[in-house]
Amino acid sequence: MVFKLLLLLPALAIAKIEVELSGIFEKDLHLAFSGEEIDVISDRERDSFKLNDRNVKTGVEAYFGGWPDDVYLRSPTPWGDLFKSYGWSEVRRTLVPKRGRILSMTSEPQVVMQQIFENNSSKPATFNVGISQSLQNTMSSSWSQSEDLTIHSEIGFDFVIDFANIAGKTSMVFSSSYGSSSQKSQTVTVGSSSHVDVLLQPGQSVLAELHATRGSLKVEMEYEASVSGDVAVNYNTPYKGHHFWGLSVEAVMSKAGMSDHLTSKQVIEVGFFTSSNVVVYDRKSNDRMMAIAL
Question: Is the pTM of this model over 0.85?
């Protein structure tokens, strides 16, 4: 029996950060991640990194020795745009996945459907006891810790999970937006798509149960946002021989006692069904008559 579940939640193609999980469920899963999201710092991100004018000027004075009249983190600026004129780098925010861990994974067999079949005729008859049921595979994403960042691309997840002692695998592809809690689901059908026949004697009644394994997985991802680039500085009265200077934002923040990185945490929970089978019991004796993997 080969069972493959494909859970599609919005497209992975636009994601710049990707998280991959592969291996054997509950035995040997491997978590890998890659990519980064880089953009010129936004006003919201200036607030998150506490890069207001006063803090930046304080850092410039501590690092360079003179209180500046103006500081700029990005284009445009007066005087013909200092970043373009001098080839300085605008301050950019970079978001990268730093570490990930599997918090929990469990599997539990469940009876997802029951149906009675009864031969009310006076002759033996063959009944199709193949049953199926629509179920929900789910994914939720929540943030236990997040900063106010302007992230335009989504974070993509690609899970390919094998199961020990069970043929087939579960594949899940989805994406989520930074900092936003979300819940998504997809309806899947488990059970038989073909005939599962049993011969019933006159008056015989059987109970068919559809069993499936409910798997759950919880993963925590930690992301780090950092800033890099130059602070464009203006002194109305030339300082050290010049009006304009380009200073490392990391050095300026360090001298001001500010951190140039922020940490965010995301928890992803996935619930899915796999490994379905039909078990048939005689209702009079309660004996199991047959069990068929689907």
Answer: no
